[in-house]
Amino acid sequence: MGIGLVNLLVIILGCLVAVCLTISDDSIARFNVLDYGAVGDGKHDDSDAFTRAWKDFCMVDAQIAVFHIPRDMLFLLKPVEFSGPCKARKLDFQIFGDLVMPKMEYWDDKDKGGAWIFFAFVQGLVMYGNGHVDGQGSDWWVDGGERYRPTAIIFHHCSYLQIHGLKIVNPPKIHIKISRCSNVRFSLLHLTAPESSSNTDGIDISHSINVDIQDSFIGTGDDCIAMINGCSNINIANIACGPGHGISVGSLGGHGQYDTVEGVKVTNCKFTGTSNGVRIKTVPGGSGYARNITFENIIFESVENPIIIDQFYSYAGSKNQVTPKNKAVSVSDIIYKNISGSSLSTSGITLHCSDAVPCTGIVMDQVNITLHNTRHRTNKIYSDCSNAQGHSTSTFPPVQCLQE
Ligand SMILES: *[C@@H]1O[C@H](CO)[C@@H](O)[C@H](O)[C@H]1NC(C)=O
Ligand SMILES: *[C@@H]1O[C@H](CO)[C@@H](O)[C@H](O)[C@H]1NC(C)=O
Ligand SMILES: *[C@@H]1O[C@H](CO)[C@@H](O)[C@H](O)[C@H]1NC(C)=O
Known about the structure:
Bound molecules: 2-acetamido-2-deoxy-beta-D-glucopyranose
Signal peptide: 1-22
Organism: Stephania cephalantha
Subcellular location: Secreted, Cell wall
CATH architecture of the largest domain: 3 Solenoid
Number of strands: 28
Protein name: Polygalacturonase
Family: Belongs to the glycosyl hydrolase 28 family.
């Protein structure tokens, strides 16, 4: 009897352990690209191996799926598409090794203009690691070079997306683009391209909600971060930006479009040697709004146009458009607080608003922009302002349109 009971207990315990092991086995599923034939010598095309690894990673029915790119290796990838929906509850994407794009001459025409790595319809992807991504973009930047240039990484229709610690250098065009995404968190990114490389935006956001970008370095040939259209609840904090064109809302309303951006917070950011600092740009003839936008605790160092709202923005192609004079994207409830630093141009604060749709609710508090001392020894800094309504306190240079 006694032995029977002990045996029974052992069997029950054994079963429990087996069940636990089975659960833990099932709960983490790992997919190493080397197991799919990736070579990682920087010469061999590893895209097929990555695509097949992704397929298994995405289809596995586990608690956690891990996509593993091993360290100390360099993987050459052609344009690849990683689509969901995936089955695992948590999707870890480990980039420990380095990735490299093919040089321009090796791109097929049909792939130009899109993305190098395209993620779509993935929920819960967490990308991390210290791998570098090299875009080898210099051939695309030259004058008269290719018009249709690929973006390094696009996230489309992704939710609960996180990236921590990714380094991207020299993409042909934009570093990272997110469109139709929600609940996005990026941190510790390092995005760089030379100041002279055109259209190499750091991060472009469109049609997305709840996006958090923090603790990152972005130095490029265009906007560090651009909120293009359809953005709401965007939080940008602790970004070092420069060189580049600054952090931009817009341009909104191009081609007569209805565009919207609202609920943006840009805090604790430093701009060094950028052509703009914090900028809102809208194209005449469009409609929609840019509203409820706060810039707080900002430092400028040698920035050409530190604070700028431009409702008369034109880009190549929009200049010859006939634009109705009574239409503009409205700009309202914009707060500038605790902002200081140096301007390269004499116009430290520029508010160019239209008389048809004036900017309203513009608030400046503790803003102090001084002239960078290597230029303009005799000139004075000023604010250039038209059709802006609101108020200012402790603001230098004083803004005539705003009540004190
Ligand atoms: C303004 O935007 C913030 C997010 O930055 C949001 O929490 C707040 O509710 C918005 N306020 C209004 C009045 O929409
Ligand atoms: C003003 O901004 C600077 C720079 O970001 C920051 O160090 C400082 O703490 C801020 N001051 C207040 C009162 O928040
Ligand atoms: C504005 O900044 C300049 C340069 O840093 C400084 O000398 C000046 O005292 C500041 N003014 C105010 C009102 O803080």
